[in-house]
Amino acid sequence: MIELKGVNGGYGKKQVLYDINCRMESGEITSIIGPNGSGKTTLLETACGLLAPFSGQVIADGEDVHKTDPKKRAKKISVLSQQKSAGALTVRALTFHGRFPYLGYPRKYTDEDREIVEKAMKAAGVYDIADETLSELSGGQQQKAYIAMLLAQDTDIVFLDEPVTFLDINYQLELMELIKNMKKQGKTVVMVIHDLNLAMSFSDKIAAVNNGRIAMFGSSKEIYDSGIIEDIFGIKAYRYAEKNQYFFTKG
Ligand code: ADP
What we know:
Layout lengths: L1 E10 L2 E11 L3 E6 L6 H8 L7 E6 L2 E2 L5 H7 E4 L10 H7 L13 H14 L14 H15 L3 E5 L7 H16 L3 E5 L3 H7 L2 E6 L2 E6 L1 H7 L1 H6 L2 E5 L4 E5 L2
Parallel strand pairs: 3-8, 3-9, 6-7, 7-8
Antiparallel strand pairs: 1-2, 1-4, 4-5, 9-10, 11-12
Helix pairs in contact: 3-4, 3-5, 4-5, 5-6
Bound molecules: adenosine-5'-diphosphate.
């Protein structure tokens, strides 16, 4: 579980987030949705500890995330950001990065680390390409390699910024299954996701963000019923209840 209390934040003198209060629960997927520039990535980066808030607190396990030692924090919170640079690494080497927070000095992997890495690569479906270099893989394969790294980091709280953007539908659904598995293990999963139908059909909770504020926080059904999506995106939304699917049109 992770909780934001009265968070104001942004960059330098530029305020982007205003009075954010919300709680992301364990064993749930919470998706942050909202128009471009509404503050989704800023909210995610502030919540996961990468970007210090101007005021307010982010609390995980009763501790202020921004006051927690980074190594300790990395055992609790993992992040898959939008920008990633690890092109020269092999999939296996990248996955081992997930174990960094657990290593002592000198950095030496244990048999347990090796086992966790193998298991993570298998679960993410990259075991067969473990020795391939990331820069030579497709976008979907690369994304799965990063997911393997997150699995190896094995934190209770996982943040993902646009995990499925630019992937074909097959990879999207595969990745969403991996993300659902994290939830089943009791992890707190928080993601920024552009695809509204994916967000609404896979998430337990939605944080609908507009102009740096949480316009509404609730289940997909509550969000749909409230009409907030139509307000903040200026579109028309439809729900196909039987399949828990959502459709959107221009007006
Ligand atoms: P979203 O993820 O919803 O598209 P962002 O959180 O990326 O929105 O951006 C919200 C606002 O913060 C935008 O006005 C954007 O220009 C600004 N912003 C984002 N990153 C930075 C940065 N590194 N420095 C200054 N302003 C930024």
